[in-house]
């Protein structure tokens, strides 16, 4: 009797065990189902691609588990049919068009197709997905028009930047949750519509940069009370800035460079107390820089270059202790460089070239221990380089060209042991009849060395032979005499040599035809030059004014023109397979131009071949 009473318990536990064993299987089967509409939408999307390595399988029915496919996420709230709510195929080398079938994913919350090679227009269906919160089509080759009145009521992030869309930029009038709106680097035209700020009080980022927008700079951005970034670069917008722009107390980045904005820089900018980044460069602003930076103590980046600003540096810039970059080049600023650099410990890139600053270089500049780039070129600075510059241990790039500095020997003695100095440009200084210094021992890490147009006398100094990392050497437009030294050909990394417009004599040494960086076919121009030297030399019609600018295709060159060299063209120049420019004009070189030299592919690409018979003046990189 006792055993029979235990049978119901036995069957109960046996039944419970079966439930436990088969419950996961049952759950797994339910997860395999895929909504038919979603399945068909995904299949239509793949059919619009030129090729697909996504690994999605459409061989079975819609019961295939599309929720496990790469790049797809599904709603986890349902235990039966799953709905696709996320599609992330960013940076997957996709090519082809965007199919309108994606509009069938009516539960989609996130769609990210960025960083691919998709082309053609975007179907209107994508701009009417009611649950879509993130749309990222950036960095493709998409084009065409976008519906002006897109219906995306749930959208938070809208990014279609770096494409070729045209027409008016889309207005998301009913998107009350919008936070990020980026239509930069397209071809949108017409006025800037600030209606976005009326639709959503959550907007934090607005980017309209690099389009063809027109009309006055609009009022209305002041209604974006939560705005932290506003970028309208490179659009050509005219007139002055509206007053309501200066009510955006939460703004951290304001980037307006490359427009046609004019007027004075408003003192109301002090109200933007959270600003970290200001760029108003390449506009038509005039007047003085307002002395209100004591209210902008979070500022890290300030650029007002290429405007029509006058006056001096506002002393309160010294209160911006976080300031890392200040660029004021190409204005009409004047006076002394009178800032308390001791109070600017984070400053690493002051660029105040092409102004009318006068006086001496401040001795406390090296107190900026993070400084890597210093450009003071084309001003009216005088005297000697401060001895404190020997403490510039972090300095990588120094340009003092186009001033009135004196005592080149002292300058080189001070700078010679800076461990990180790679680029030194001192052209158009030292015009007091100085000679090329001898006995310098440092600069062992220097790769760009330029002392052109300084009227220096003497000969090419032997200590330059120790600069084994040198890639650019320009000592042109001086009064150097003697012969071209043989050791120049031993500078294995040299790819730009300009010793033109001196008084050099003798024959061209054969060692110049053996420079490894120019002769080794395994060293492409990109490997030799572009990796470290984004410079191009611009020379005016007289050949005397040189400017070094950022550029990615620095032409490898040997420029020996306008000297008193004799002899003939060396046949060894044929072997310099990486050479782009060979300039031998205005010398007493005779002989024939070798057939192989005339057929030199890279020289012909530049369109320049030494012409012995015409003696025409040649200007490079003008």
Question: What do you see in this structure?
Answer:
By secondary structure, the chain is α/β, with parallel strands linked by helices. Among the domains are: 112 residues, Leucine-rich repeat, LRR (right-handed beta-alpha superhelix); 151 residues, Leucine-rich repeat, LRR (right-handed beta-alpha superhelix). The chain contains nine helices and 42 strands. Strands 2-3-5-7-9-11-13-15-17-19-21-23-25 form a 13-stranded mixed sheet, with no helix packed on it. Strands 27-29-31-32-33-35-39-41 form an eight-stranded parallel sheet. A seven-stranded mixed sheet has the order 1-4-6-8-10-12-14. The C terminus is likely disordered.
- Briefly note the CATH topology name of the domain at 472-622: Leucine-rich repeat, LRR (right-handed beta-alpha superhelix)
Count of helical stretches: 9
Spatial separation of the terminal alpha carbons? 112 Å
Write out the strand line-up for the largest beta sheet, numbering strands in chain order.
2-3-5-7-9-11-13-15-17-19-21-23-25
- Topology, number of strands: 42
Helical content band: 10-25%
Overall shape: globular
Structural class, please? alpha/beta
CATH class of the domain at 472-622: Alpha Beta
Provide the β-strand percentage band: 15-25%
């Amino acid at each position: 009797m006792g055993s029979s009473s235990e049978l119901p318990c036995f069957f109960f536990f046996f039944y419970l065990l079966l439930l436990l064993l088969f419950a996961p299987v049952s759950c797994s089967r339910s997860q395999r189902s895929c909504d038919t509409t979603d399945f068909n939408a995904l299949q239509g999307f793949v059919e619009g691609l030129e090729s697909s390595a996504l690994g999605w399988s459409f061989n079975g029915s819609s019961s295939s588990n599309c929720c496990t496919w790469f790049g797809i996420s599904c709603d986890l709230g349902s235990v039966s049919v799953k709905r696709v709510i996320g599609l992330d195929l960013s940076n997957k080398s996709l090519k082809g068009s965007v199919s309108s079938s994606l509009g069938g994913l009516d539960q989609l919350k996130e769609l990210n197709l960025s960083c691919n090679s998709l082309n053609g227009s975007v179907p209107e269906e994508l701009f009417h997905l009611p649950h879509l919160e993130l749309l990222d089509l950036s960095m493709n080759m998409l084009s065409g028009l976008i519906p002006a009145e897109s219906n995306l009521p749930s959208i938070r992030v809208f990014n279609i930047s770096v494409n070729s869309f045209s027409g008016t930029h889309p207005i998301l009038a009913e998107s009350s949750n919008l936070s990020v709106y980026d239509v930069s680097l397209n071809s949108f035209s017409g006025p800037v519509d600030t209606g976005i700020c009326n639709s959503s009080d959550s907007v934090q980022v607005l980017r309209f940069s690099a389009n063809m927008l027109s009309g006055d700079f609009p009022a209305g951005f002041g209604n974006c009370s939560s705005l932290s970034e506003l970028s309208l670069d490179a659009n050509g917008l005219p007139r002055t800035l509206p007053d309501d722009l200066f009510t955006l107390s939460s703004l951290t980045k304001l980037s307006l460079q490359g427009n046609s904005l004019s007027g004075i820089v408003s003192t109301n900018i002090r109200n933007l107390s959270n600003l970290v980044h200001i760029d108003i460069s390449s506009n038509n602003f005039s007047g003085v820089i307002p002395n209100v930076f004591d209210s902008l103590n979070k500022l890290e980046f300030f650029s007002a270059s290429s405007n029509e600003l006058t006056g001096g540096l506002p002393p309160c810039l010294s209160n911006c202790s976080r300031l890392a970059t200040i660029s004021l080049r190409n204005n009409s600023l004047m006076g002394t460089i009178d800032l308390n650099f001791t109070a600017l410990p984070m400053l690493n890139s002051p660029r105040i070239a092409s102004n009318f600053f006068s006086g001496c270089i401040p001795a406390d500049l090296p107190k900026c221990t993070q400084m890597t780039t210093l450009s003071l070129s084309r001003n009216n600075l005088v005297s000697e380089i401060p001895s404190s510059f020997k403490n510039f241990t972090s300095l990588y790039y120094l340009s003092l060209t186009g001033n009135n500095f004196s005592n080149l020997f002292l300058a080189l003695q001070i700078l010679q042991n800076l461990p990180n100095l790679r680029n030194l440009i001192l052209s158009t200084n030292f015009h007091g009849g100085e000679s090329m210094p001898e006995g310098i021992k440092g600069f062992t890490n220097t790769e760009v060395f330029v002392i052109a147009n300084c009227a220096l006398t003497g000969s090419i100094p032997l200590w330059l032979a120790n600069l084994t990392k040198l890639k650019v050497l320009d000592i042109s437009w001086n009064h150097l005499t003697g012969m071209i030294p043989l050791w120049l050909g031993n500078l294995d990394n040299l790819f730009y040599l300009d010793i033109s417009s001196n008084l050099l004599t003798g024959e061209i040494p054969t060692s110049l035809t053996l420079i490894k960086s120019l002769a080794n076919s395994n060293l492409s121009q990109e490997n030799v030059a572009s990796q470290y030297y984004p410079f191009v030399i611009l020379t005016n019609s007289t050949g005397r004014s040189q400017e070094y600018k950022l550029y990615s295709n620095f032409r490898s060159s040997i420029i020996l023109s306008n000297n008193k060299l004799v002899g003939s063209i060396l046949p060894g120049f044929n072997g310099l397979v990486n050479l782009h420019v060979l300039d031998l004009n205005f010398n007493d070189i005779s002989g024939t131009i070798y057939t192989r030299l005339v057929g030199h592919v890279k020289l012909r690409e530049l369109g320049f071949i030494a012409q012995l018979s015409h003696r025409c003046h040649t200007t490079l990189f003008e």
